[in-house]
Design a protein that fits this description.
Helix content: 10-25%
Number of helices: 7
Order of helices and strands: EEEHEHHEEHEEHEEEEEHEEEHE
Bound molecules: zinc ion
Largest sheet: 12 strands, mixed
Distance between the termini: 32 Å
Number of strands: 17
Structural class: alpha/beta
Strand content: 25-35%
């Protein structure tokens, strides 16, 4: 069984007026839309793979309104998890994560992964210029691109968005399904609906619609700082915590902990406070527990053993439970690829 999705050629009437709340009046199912432009090399764009991350819809409404007469380049637009978008959730309880189910996924085959496979077959059957997957973060972060293959063209694509970008290797993300086919990046556009994040992504999409080619020369260090994510920091379910240093709980953080996002923390900076022995667990990308290597507790204060960069910190307790508190980043080192 494959999850059913619709196909359209051209935009449906009413596209510019919909919001995620009424999106299913136009798109009752996930929908793949082919939009013809001057250059027939397609830009694949996916939006709403995570239903609550709705900036991508606004981005495409703005871009497509600006090019109502004619697109400089053809677009293949995938409108993803419309049921979750309607409910303003990452995914519904009975659904899999729409950005972990793409070819290369570790997930068991299911209707949604089969739909993703079919979408990729269709996309790969067309001449492709590039692929963009538009997302948001649940905490306050700078806007940045994520790439799964740090080749020079992808690095240039990422550098066009921001001077910091992340290499990530989560199996089954949409961006990874384009590796070896065309330049591809995931765009993290700040909090859902953040007007600056929307404008920032609009500019990048517009550039990708008119650009002839991305350079194959790696960007200089002053143009791109590439970091990688291979540690996730979790709070075990039995640990009580709060974002208030004076709270009567097992684990406490400063209220403005999100200000730590994408800043380096050295081994002398306090990350949090605790009254128990193991308030946190840190997993690497293989799921191994590396907590004792990565952090230490001294008189109730939590420190990292090496300089690390927290990112995607969220204070949303549901997201912390479903995903994690934050990622811990390091500078990207190409030799790490050998083991991945
Ligand atoms: Zn997302």
């Amino acid at each position: 069984m494959i999850e059913s999705f619709d196909r359209m050629h051209g935009l449906p009437d009413g596209f510019f007026d919909i919001t995620t709340a009424n999106i299913r009046s136009l798109f009752p199912n996930p929908t793949l839309i082919q939009l013809d432009g001057q250059d027939r090399n397609y830009l694949f764009i996916s939006i709403l793979l995570h239903g609550n991350e709705h900036s991508g819809l606004s981005v495409m409404q703005k871009v497509l309104a600006r090019y109502a007469e004619e697109l400089p380049r053809s677009i293949l637009l995938f409108v993803g998890n419309v049921r979750a978008a309607e409910a303003n959730l990452r995914h519904l309880p009975d659904q899999v994560d729409y950005n972990r189910c793409w070819p290369g996924t570790l997930m068991e085959s299911c209707p949604t992964s089969q739909m993703a496979r079919r979408i990729i077959e269709i996309a790969h059957g067309l001449p492709l210029f590039g692929a963009l997957d538009i997302h948001n973060n649940t905490g306050r972060n700078p806007h940045y691109a994520c790439i799964t293959d740090p080749n020079p063209r992808n690095q240039n694509l990422a550098a066009t968005f921001n001077r910091i970008a992340m290499v990530y290797k989560h199996k089954g993300v949409c961006t990874m399904a384009f590796d070896g086919i065309c330049p591809a990046a995931t765009l993290e556009c700040g909090l859902p609906g953040d007007p600056e994040g929307i404008e920032h992504a609009v500019r990048l999409v517009e550039e990708m619609l008119s650009l002839e080619q991305l350079s194959a020369e790696p960007p200089k260090r002053d143009k791109l700082h590439l970091v990688e994510s291979h540690l996730n920091l979790h709070i075990p379910g039995h640990v009580s915590y709060d974002f208030d240093p004076a709270a009567d709980v097992d684990l406490r953080f400063e209220e403005n902990i999100e200000a730590r996002n994408f800043t380096l923390m050295d081994p002398k900076q306090v990350f949090g406070y605790t009254r128990i022995d193991r308030p946190i667990s840190i997993l690497d990308t293989d799921g191994h527990d590396v907590t004792d290597e990565v952090l230490r507790i001294e008189q109730g204060r939590i420190f990292f053993n090496q300089t690390l960069m927290p990112a995607m910190i969220t204070r949303d307790k549901l997201v912390i439970q479903q995903d994690c508190l934050c990622h811990l980043l390091q500078d990207y080192l190409p030799h790490h690829d050998v083991e991945l």
